[in-house]
Each structure stands twice: as structure tokens, then as C-alpha cells.
């Protein structure tokens, strides 16, 4: 059996262990220190979470970007009016100039041998640089938490455990990170509506999870 190659910590643990000045820089440091780990998640309680996923890219030189600047950019994209958890992922535009030989019929009709075509597509991978730490190729994701009404908030004990349990379930279900983070945040939020660490844990058939399992 292969061990899951992930690492999760909270805000204080991540910064204290890496001695990084910020959470985004701590994420880069953790992936550099743990080369077999595929992704790292830092949970932030009511402020959601941040995830950095290591990615290998073939035949493409990704853009290099400061991880702090990217984190600030993603935070600005949050919908402050939304009540349900969401995920904002890094996106970058790449241009690829390709040249190929036309078919015989096309050469005859057009009188040309070759033509240049520019392809544009969207990627969510970049070389993320943390000052004084290093660079990792991957994508950064910011997850939000549910805005729980104060009258429904009962007990936050075990919310972090509920979150990571939902992450493990998501991995087994082959969920992409963009679906995994909101799903895990919703599981944690449902748990917070009951007393104790286990009483409020939802089943997969819970109607409150339906929007995240489609």
C-alpha cells in the first residue's frame, strides 16, 4: 500500500517549522524540504485554507511568479458575498508558436509552403518563487470557508480533523483540488453545527453535501 503523499498543518505550525515570513513562502519551503510530498494544505479556520500542489510540466517553460504576489491576487478574487465554500486557483496564459508544413493540396491552392500558428491556452501552473527560500513548479489554490450564522455555530472541536478526513475521501474519489477544498470545508462547517468532535460529521448522502459531489 502506498502512503498518501500529502502534508497538512495549521497556520502557526507551518510558519514555525519553516521559519518563513508568511504562509505562501512556508508552503514553498515545505515542498522543497519534502520532495516526495505532492501537495501541502495550511488550514486557517474561518478564513479557509491555502494549498500548494507540486506539478511536473513537459515541453513547456512556465512563467515565474512571486508566490506572495500570487497569493494577494487570489485573495482579491474572493467573493465576499458568498456564503458557501469556494476555491480560487491560479491561472496563467501561455502562448505557443508552432510551424508546420501544409498538405500538398493546400500548398497548391495557396502557393505557400508553411504557415505560423499561435495557440493560446490557459494553465494553472507556474514557477512559484519565495524570496530567500527557493522555487517550486506548481499551482496555488485558496479555499474559503462557509460563513456559518452565529446562531448555528455550536462547537468547532474537531473541525480540522473533519476537514482532513474529507480531503482523504476526496483523494480516494479522484476529486480535483478545485472541488476537494470546498467539499472539505463544507464537511468541517457541518460538523461545527453539533456538539463534540464526531456527532456532527455528515454522511456522503447528506443533502448539504450534494452541491459539492456533482
Task: Kindly list the characteristics that best describe this protein.
214 residues, elongated, single chain, kinase activity, alpha+beta, Carbohydrate kinase PfkB domain-containing protein, kinase, transferase, seven-stranded mixed sheet
What is the fold's blueprint, element by element?
Blueprint: E1 6-10, H1 11-18, H2 23-33, E2 39-43, E3 49-54, E4 64-66, H3 67-76, E5 87-89, E6 92-101, H4 104-110, E7 114-123, E8 126-130, E9 134-143, H5 159-172, H6 177-191
Number of strands: 9
Secondary structure class reads alpha+beta
- CATH A-level architecture of the largest domain: 3-Layer(aba) Sandwich
Major sheet description:
7 strands, mixed
Total individual domains: 2
Q: State the separation between the terminal residues, measured CA to CA.
A: 29 Å
Question: Any idea what the shape is?
Answer: elongated
Strand percentage, roughly? Answer: 25-35%
Name given to the CATH homologous superfamily of the largest domain = Ribokinase
CATH topology of the largest domain: UDP-N-acetylmuramoyl-L-alanine:D-glutamate ligase
CATH top level class name of the largest domain: Alpha Beta
Q: What is the number of helical segments per DSSP (H or I, 4+ residues)?
A: 6
Topology pattern, helix = H, strand = E: EHHEEEHEEHEEEHH
Mean pLDDT: 81
Indicate the percent of residues in helices: 25-40%
Q: Please state the CA-atom Rg, rounded to the nearest Å.
A: 21 Å
Unreliable spans:
93-122
Keywords: Kinase, Transferase
GO molecular function: kinase activity
Protein name: Carbohydrate kinase PfkB domain-containing protein
InterPro entries: Carboh/pur_kinase_PfkB_CS, Ketohexokinase-related, PfkB_dom, Ribokinase-like
Amino acid at each position: 500500500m502506498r502512503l498518501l503523499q500529502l502534508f497538512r498543518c495549521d497556520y502557526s505550525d507551518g510558519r514555525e517549522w519553516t521559519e518563513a515570513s508568511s504562509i505562501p513562502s512556508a508552503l514553498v519551503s515545505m515542498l522543497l524540504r519534502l520532495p516526495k510530498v505532492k501537495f501541502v494544505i495550511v488550514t486557517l479556520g474561518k478564513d479557509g485554507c491555502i494549498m500548494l500542489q507540486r506539478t511536473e510540466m513537459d515541453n513547456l517553460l512556465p512563467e515565474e511568479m512571486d508566490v506572495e504576489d500570487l497569493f494577494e491576487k487570489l485573495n482579491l478574487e474572493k467573493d465576499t458575498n458568498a456564503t458557501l465554500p469556494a476555491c480560487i486557483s491560479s491561472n496563467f496564459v501561455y502562448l505557443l508558436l508552432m510551424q508546420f508544413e501544409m498538405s500538398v493540396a493546400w500548398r497548391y491552392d495557396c502557393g505557400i509552403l508553411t504557415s505560423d500558428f499561435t495557440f493560446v491556452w490557459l494553465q494553472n501552473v507556474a514557477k512559484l518563487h519565495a524570496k530567500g527560500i527557493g522555487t517550486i513548479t506548481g499551482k496555488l489554490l485558496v479555499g474559503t470557508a462557509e460563513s456559518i450564522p452565529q446562531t448555528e455555530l455550536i462547537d468547532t472541536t474537531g473541525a480540522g480533523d473533519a476537514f482532513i478526513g474529507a480531503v482523504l475521501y476526496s483523494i480516494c474519489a479522484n476529486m480535483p483540488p478545485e472541488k476537494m477544498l470546498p467539499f472539505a470545508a463544507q464537511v468541517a462547517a457541518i460538523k461545527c453545527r453539533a456538539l463534540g468532535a464526531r456527532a456532527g460529521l455528515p454522511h456522503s448522502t447528506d443533502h448539504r453535501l450534494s452541491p459539492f459531489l456533482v
